[in-house]
């Protein structure tokens, strides 16, 4: 997981530096030229051979944002990041989370509650005892202590 954070912070730093470089480049290239254009001729594209397909030009390479200088490093970082993110985090993380044991004992408490209700129904008792707390242990204030206090039941 720490490798993923390192890759992410590295990618963000590279994107910021590339953005700053682009801003600086655009600042100088947006000037208006009034001189006559020297390269107004149209050139026919060269014929494509099998060697061109075997050895593609690196000028057509577009970075995925992990490495702007090396195509192989960029592809390795991309594949490893997606492997970690999708396979390890999403697939195995979901599998692990769905099969975690019941750490807060919710299913046990519900099962015990149903068993207690069934036992009380078969014994003919109230579902909840009215004397759940011993009435002798409860200390209530006297009428003099209450005075004019409104009691809402």
Automatic annotation (TrEMBL):
User: Where is it predominantly found?
Assistant: mitochondrion
Which Pfam family, any one of them, does this sequence belong to?
Answer: ESSS
Q: How does it sit in the membrane?
A: Single-pass membrane protein
Alphabetical GO CC annotations of the entry are: mitochondrial inner membrane
Q: Which residue windows are transmembrane per the record?
A: 81-99
Entry keywords, A to Z: Electron transport, Membrane, Mitochondrion, Mitochondrion inner membrane, Respiratory chain, Transit peptide, Transmembrane, Transmembrane helix, Transport
List localization entries.
Answer: Mitochondrion inner membrane
Is Transmembrane helix set as a keyword in this record?
A: yes
InterPro entries reported for this sequence: NADH_UbQ_OxRdtase_ESSS_su (IPR019329)
Checking PANTHER family in the record gives: NADH DEHYDROGENASE [UBIQUINONE] 1 BETA SUBCOMPLEX SUBUNIT 11, MITOCHONDRIAL, NADH-UBIQUINONE OXIDOREDUCTASE ESSS SUBUNIT, MITOCHONDRIAL PRECURSOR
Subunit structure as annotated in this protein's UniProt entry: Complex I is composed of 45 different subunits. Interacts with BCAP31.
Please report which protein family the annotation says this sequence is part of.
Belongs to the complex I NDUFB11 subunit family.
Functional description taken from the UniProt entry: Accessory subunit of the mitochondrial membrane respiratory chain NADH dehydrogenase (Complex I), that is believed not to be involved in catalysis. Complex I functions in the transfer of electrons from NADH to the respiratory chain. The immediate electron acceptor for the enzyme is believed to be ubiquinone.
Kindly provide the name given to this protein in its UniProt entry: NADH dehydrogenase [ubiquinone] 1 beta subcomplex subunit 11, mitochondrial
Species this chain originates from: Drosophila virilis
Name the lineage: Eukaryota, Metazoa, Ecdysozoa, Arthropoda, Hexapoda
């Amino acid at each position: 997981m720490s490798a993923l954070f390192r890759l992410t912070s590295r990618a963000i730093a590279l994107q910021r530096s590339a953005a700053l470089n682009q801003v600086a480049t655009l600042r100088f290239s947006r000037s208006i030229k009034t001189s006559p254009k020297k390269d107004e001729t149209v050139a026919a594209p060269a014929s494509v051979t099998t060697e061109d397909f075997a050895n593609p030009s690196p000028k057509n390479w577009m970075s995925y944002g992990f490495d702007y200088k090396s195509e192989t490093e960029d592809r390795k970082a991309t594949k490893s990041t997606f492997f970690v993110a999708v396979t390890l985090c999403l697939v195995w993380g979901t599998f692990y989370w769905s099969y975690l044991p019941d750490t807060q004992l919710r299913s046990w408490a519900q099962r015990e509650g149903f068993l207690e209700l069934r036992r009380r129904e078969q014994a003919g008792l109230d579902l909840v005892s009215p004397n759940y707390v011993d009435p002798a242990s409860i200390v209530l204030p006297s009428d003099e202590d209450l005075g004019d206090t409104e009691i809402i039941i």
